[in-house]
Design goal:
single chain, alpha+beta
């Protein structure tokens, strides 16, 4: 009877296999918390004019404040009647959330949570909620109301003309 040789068989080392499995799991987790390229393109496009990074600076819109800017381009997002007072609507393809914190006042923010990059999931009672880790943001100014997020949602520029809300 012969005994088995103590030399290992050819193939990947155990460390290599464990590291590869860990890297694959990490990649899957980060992908699940991330957002698609469309939302980051929209966020960077909104930031290219210099006002999207500062909360409240041109991010909000009331019909009287923006009508003079009028019919200049932009993607039509919704009718004003589609945005409930105290709530809002998430536009996943454009990567923005539009809110109406007070009657006739419309605000827009990036829909990408500042904590882990998840897309926010709901807007109600003046609060934008991220479902991944339960961060809450103000529908009025995007500020953090409850962590773990520590940074506000980035403002996005919109215009309101008549009953149309457009991404600027």
């Amino acid at each position: 009877m012969t005994s088995a040789s103590p030399t290992p068989a050819a193939g990947p080392a155990r460390r290599t296999v464990v590291a590869a499995a860990g890297a694959a799991g990490l990649a899957a987790a980060l992908t699940a918390c991330g957002s698609d390229d469309k939302s980051s393109d929209s966020s960077s496009a909104a930031g290219s004019n210099g006002t999207a990074g500062s909360a409240g600076a041109g991010a909000g819109s009331s019909p009287s404040a923006q009508e003079s800017g009028g019919s200049a381009g932009g993607t039509t997002l919704a009718k004003t009647s589609d945005i409930p007072e105290g709530g809002g609507k998430i536009f996943k393809d454009q990567g923005v959330v539009v809110t109406q914190p007070a009657s006739g006042t419309y605000k827009a923010f990036s829909s990408k949570c500042t904590h882990a990059g998840c897309a926010v999931g709901s807007v109600a009672n003046g609060v934008i909620v991220c479902p991944c880790h339960n961060s809450h943001f103000s529908a009025a100014d995007g500020s953090v109301k409850q962590g773990p997020a520590t940074q506000p949602l980035a403002a996005a520029n919109i215009t309101v003309s008549g009953d149309e809300i457009k991404l600027a």
